[in-house]
Model the fold of this input.
Amino acid sequence: MGEFMKIGIIFAMESELNALKEYLEVIKVYDLFDLKFYEARYKNISCILVESGVGKVNSSRTTQILIDNMKVDYIFNIGVAGGISSDLKVLDIVIGEKLVQHDFDITAFNHEKGYVPNTGVFIESDTYLLNIAKSLITDTTYKVGIIASGDIFLTDSNMSKKINTKFQALCAEMEGASIAMVCSLCHIPFLVIRSISDVVGSENKLTYEEFLIESSKKVALFMIKILNRLSEDNKIK
Done:
């Protein structure tokens, strides 16, 4: 009872990682394949934090290295995203019920946009982790829905509307779906949570830069709430 659970937490950028690291006790740092892994403690949980870099290749590579070398029980991807739903405002939190690669396109072979062979269009998050996150929702600034990922920082309102309409996605970023796919293929439970740093439009790059730190802090605090619940659950196992 009460043994250390091991959780991997992947961030695209250093600012996102630093926002959570403030609440944890870092006990060891590993350098592996030019990535820096921070082993930290939170109550009876061992957290492995790593900055993957931006984009689907970087994030999927990092996820596989994390799984192969750190033997984690769960993986979270947290950070910021751009809102593509009219229901979202800056600093809202989106909990990813499903993930989709909006830029994966083999429609030439009679598959729908986003379809990945042997995987499908959507990858569903782990039910247990998703239910924990849902139970911690406190107000209407928290949304549960689909997160879309692709190797583009969206600034085009027309493109964002197409992604929102096609996939019913609430927000878009550049890593979550690839992390989800690797976790799914390796049978590792996962959850993606994003705080909205900007809403796609002509000014979203400026908004992103202004709210990056604040958005990172908000999602970090929500992650701490999840760690508290996981810690309690781990005590009674």
Notes: The beta strands are 5-11, 25-32, 35-42, 45-51, 74-83, 93-101, 123-124, 142-149, 169-173, 190-199. The helical segments are 14-21, 56-70, 127-135, 157-167, 176-185, 204-235.
